[in-house]
Write a structure and sequence with these properties.
Elements (H helix, E strand, L loop, with lengths): L1 H5 L3 H57 L3 E4 L8 H5 L5 E3 L5 E5 L1 H12 L5 E5 L12 H11 L5 E5 L6 E9 L5 H4 L9 E10 L1 H52 L9 H18 L3 E8 L2 H8 L1 H17 L6 E6 L2 E7 L3 H17 L1 E3 L4 E3 L2 E7 L6 H17 L5 E3 L1
Parallel strand pairs: 13-14
Antiparallel strand pairs: 1-3, 2-3, 4-7, 5-6, 6-7, 8-10, 8-13, 9-10, 11-12
Helix pairs in contact: 2-4, 2-7, 9-10
Length: 415
């Protein structure tokens, strides 16, 4: 029912629609902001972790290069670095006790540390646009980063989802220092030049799963909260609309019904009479009027007071209404006068209605806790004639009532 009423109040409906849309947008912005903030916070932690790895590798390489390379025991698992020989650097040496050592320069050391880190998923890759070792060839991300470094950028990063699991890739440039020239002076580098970069790869599959889980939790929470708020809004709207409908019905009733007697008022009577008069004129159907006046009503007011007089009016109206046909229309015409519109009726049918009302009222005893009285009525009856207007019809029934009162009251006169 209230959904049908909902359609009557366009302003309320529009307000609720706008409010609901506004709340949807607000919640979308809020929860999107929360998700983005969480995402950015976690990725910032990963970024700082990648920076730490990069810084550690750079410092480790610097330590190595400051010593001109580090010699390690050479065995069946450790091979000489062939690229050092191409640079004219003697990479192997034999000790007096027969033990063989081989040099581990910063590049090969970085590669071997990366292999050790593979179990944790973190790897490093040293690369350059001026390759000496083909194994260090840059991929698309690394090539793009190296070119950006040459333009002044200090770092590059992205989340790579091309594999089975996402990987956070961080890269920063390697600058030529004095200790680096021992190996790279033939390539034309000067101190401070960018000779390449190191790419740090950190697996973020577990982080990605956490972010996805958090996203779904936020979505579910947002939807549940939004549904709850919308449900509250609609419940409150239902209450508001029902109260508005009650107020509308009350106002409508007040516009049509006499407050004291609870029958139609004169305003409604005139609209109804015009409608029935026009219909009767158009189709040639009957139309009769009965005008009723409570006899000596002023004496009742003067003797028992206006409160009791109001009771008499209300009871009389109720008795008249109870004795009408379903299609007769009763209204309070003014003061103690009532009018009955009898559609499709001639004076004889209208008189039958008036006689029934007349007899029932004479039998009625009206009382409250203090006073008791009985009443009689005078009535005038007329029907529409071909040459009538509404004014002449009303004038004639008023005259008929006046004659009934003038000739002794408690009677019915037909004109």
């Amino acid at each position: 029912m209230w959904l049908r009423l909902f359609g009557y109040f366009k302003a309320v409906r529009t307000f609720i629609y706008v409010l609901t849309a506004f709340l949807c947008v607000v919640f979308l912005v809020i929860f999107s902001g929360i998700y983005k903030n969480s995402h950015d916070l976690i990725m910032n932690v990963v970024h700082e972790q990648a920076e730490s790895y990069f810084d550690l590798i750079v410092k480790t390489r610097l330590w190595n290069s400051n010593y001109g390379g580090v010699y390690v025991l050479k065995n069946h698992d450790v091979e000489s670095n062939p690229y050092l020989q191409q640079l004219g650097i003697k990479s192997d040496m034999r000790c007096e006790d027969g033990i063989s050592l081989t040099m581990r320069n910063p590049a090969i050391m970085t590669k071997e540390i990366s292999k050790l880190m593979e179990k944790s998923g973190v790897t490093f890759h040293i690369t350059s646009l001026k390759l000496f070792n083909p194994e260090n060839k840059p991929d698309d991300f690394e090539t793009s980063a190296l070119k950006r470094f040459e333009k002044g950028e200090k770092e590059a990063w992205q989340v790579d989802r091309s594999g089975n699991k996402p990987v956070y890739r961080y890269m920063a440039p390697l600058y030529v220092e004095q200790s680096c020239l021992a190996c790279h002076h033939n390539q034309g580098y000067k101190i401070g030049d960018i000779r390449g970069g190191i790419n740090v790869n950190i697996p973020v599959g577990h982080i990605d799963e956490q972010l996805t889980r958090s996203k779904y939790i936020l979505i579910a929470t947002g939807i549940a909260t939004l549904i709850l708020i919308i449900a509250v809004i609609y419940f409150m709207s239902k209450t508001l609309i029902l109260r508005l409908e009650e107020a509308r019905q009350t106002m409508r009733k007040q516009a049509l019904v006499d407050e004291l007697t609870q029958v139609y008022n004169r305003r409604f009577l005139m609209k109804k009479l015009k409608s029935e008069f026009d219909r009767s004129t158009r189709y040639g159907t009957g139309l009769s009027l009965v005008m009723i006046d409570i006899d000596f009503f002023k004496n009742i007011n003067d003797t028992y007071g206006h409160l009791f007089g109001d009771l008499v009016l209300a009871r009389a109206a109720h008795m008249i209404q109870d004795n009408l046909r379903s299609y007769d229309v009763l209204a309070r015409y003014g003061g103690e006068e009532f009018m009955i519109v009898c559609p499709d009726s001639d004076v004889n049918e209208a008189k039958a209605v008036a006689d029934r009302v007349h007899e029932k009222l004479k039998q009625e005893v009206i009382s409250d806790d203090t006073h008791t009285t009985s009443i009689t009525i005078s009535a005038g009856i007329t029907e529409r004639r071909p040459d009538d207007t509404m004014d002449t019809l009303l004038s004639r029934v008023d005259t008929a009532l006046y004659q009934a009162k003038l000739t002794g009251r408690d009677k019915i006169v037909i004109l």
